[in-house]
């Protein structure tokens, strides 16, 4: 087996977990849990130490055992035996994106993990566990825990003792970072979410001092866009190695119906929000969501796999937070912009008409946006049969001398790449939590991707992970006007190709 990623929990000695009793909802009867009965591969190179056992008991199924890594007082590092298990909670884990996160974790984790899917729909939870357990290849565990995360007492019980909590239960608009706050209170080592409203992100970042004290490390907006795209923009800026003037993000997705009705709701609500773009070096929000159409080329040249897969597409403005947060991190001197488009082209035209006709405050109303999402979902699902699933990003960063670095990234599935990206951010935090000196640093706090991966070492490692996930069909950079460098990685044949 390939080199092992060391997983475990890192926390202050004062926060060592105590044994506790967990009782699942009596109306549910039992927690769905399954383990593939295979010998666990001897892949983890760790020092073996005695591991105390943590017993999780439910009202009507056999006790589930989890072990807590022993904390070494001098180094605050975690070592564990091969029998230990790393517990990962996915809030919203029964959704289309949450289950994609789980699938990638179960596929990529080379040390033993227990993934707990948290959601309100018990039947859906049982189906997701059955789907995921059928593909298990190692001695991992996959379970479902019935929970409305807004019930704080139950949430605390479920996340207690976890190594990482992943929050995928959108939409985030109108929410407060309550799950992050509970993770900080419970001294959970690692946290990742997919948040995109700027107000939510700002409220979460304000919790960073508390996270530092609790030894919690959190990544916000840790998906494909925002998330992966933020890190790509930082890489483009680093390649230019000069003060940055402009940054632009362009996104394309086909097959949005495959990512579930929640994503349709999030898109609709976005039409009621201002785009927090920069103009002349400062943030100047504008109510232009769904407007300002533009044709974008989602490839660098004809040799790019995305030339045939995606080609040129129409995109329109949408209020993704990276247009403000990355611009701020790079201290740009002029403009930032962010736009997205979908397929078939008719949807872009229809949405443009609707945004002009329907008052913005209606889109901000969740009931109206949900009605629109429910109304359009059958049509989106129907057209998805013909357009298929595709995802592509183009990021352009221009320095004050006019030189531009462009990056293109493409994937077979929007839903999968969001889940895979989120999972890889979580794996990165888990690796940092157990890494010896010389690796990427463990720095508790609350971060956006562009902040955590501003350094070249950490950025190179996470970009390697994010750009290598299954389904990736292109990942390229180019420098203009010099045009002296282009890098491509193709996954269509399962091989890597580097072009210079």
UniProtKB/TrEMBL annotation:
Q: Which Pfam families match?
A: Sacchrp_dh_NADP
Limits of the Saccharopine dehydrogenase NADP binding domain: 88-219
Q: Which Gene3D superfamilies match?
A: NAD(P)-binding Rossmann-like Domain
Stored SUPFAM superfamilies: NAD(P)-binding Rossmann-fold domains
* Protein's UniProt name: Saccharopine dehydrogenase isoform 2
Give the species: Tetraselmis sp. GSL018
